[in-house]
Design a protein that fits this description.
The protein is mainly alpha-helical. It has one domain (about 1-225). About 80% of the residues lie in helices and about 0% in strands. The mean pLDDT is about 85.
């Protein structure tokens, strides 16, 4: 399990540091009306979608003959997913650098209206975001393929994927816990953090996409050529 979690670490970090999902979560959390409930509903929606992805694609990938080829290197499925993910991230970095709109990004008006959403709509956004963001799709599928290739059995695989979800959503859960434990102190911190992330969304996205894009691209190519 320890070795598997180390293998999952790049996909966990990549999923966790997506600026868009963090900004949306913070905007919901600092809403003057029902902010805490909106943020919880948002994270709950994302969790349900990821659980459904795990049930469907985890089953498919665990039955894949490509994952049981007995080789010591990465399977062709994982290598291909890493290559696709690397390309997507490099494209995202280039678009942000060229100031071209990323298809995963919402229009500015949509962002300004986030804090006025109801908890039900926040839940719906949580359900939909992992489905419409291509990078989140590939992060999840690559994590599932890595878990399946480890062949640790269904219970251990389920635990590993649950840990992946928990850690991938850690940057969304921590502000919620902060709001619950220290509600008064958290208000100014969340406002400042939300403003900082919104202001620095472009350089953060470029840096994260470029670093992980190069890492996954190289890993995918080396796996396919091995």
């Amino acid at each position: 399990m320890g070795t598997l979690l180390i293998s999952l670490l790049p996909y966990i970090i990549g999923s966790a540091v997506v600026p868009l999902q963090i900004i949306v979560g913070l905007l919901l959390l600092k809403s003057p009306a029902q902010g805490l409930f909106k943020a919880i509903a948002y994270v709950s929606g994302m969790t349900i979608t990821r659980l459904l992805q795990g049930l469907i694609f985890g089953f498919v990938l665990s039955r894949s003959t490509a994952l049981a080829d007995g080789s010591s290197g990465k399977s062709p499925v994982i290598s291909t997913l890493l290559l696709v993910l690397g390309i997507l991230l490099l494209i995202a970095a280039y678009k942000k650098w060229r100031k071209v709109d990323d298809p995963d990004d919402p229009p500015p008006k949509w962002l300004t209206r986030v804090d006025s959403l109801t908890p039900v709509k926040a839940f719906g956004i949580g359900l939909g975001l992992p489905l419409v963001a291509a990078k989140l799709w590939v992060f999840t599928l690559t994590a599932l393929a890595t878990i399946a290739s480890a062949q640790l059995g269904q219970p251990t695989s389920a635990i590993a994927y649950s840990l992946f979800i928990l850690l991938a959503e850690s940057l969304l859960l921590l502000p919620i816990l902060m709001r619950i434990l220290v509600p008064e102190r958290s208000k100014s911190v969340l406002i400042d953090l939300s403003a900082w992330l919104t202001r620095n969304n472009r350089p953060i996205t470029i840096t994260v996409s470029l670093v992980f894009g190069l890492l996954f691209f190289q890993s995918g190519i080396s796996g396919l050529l091995a």
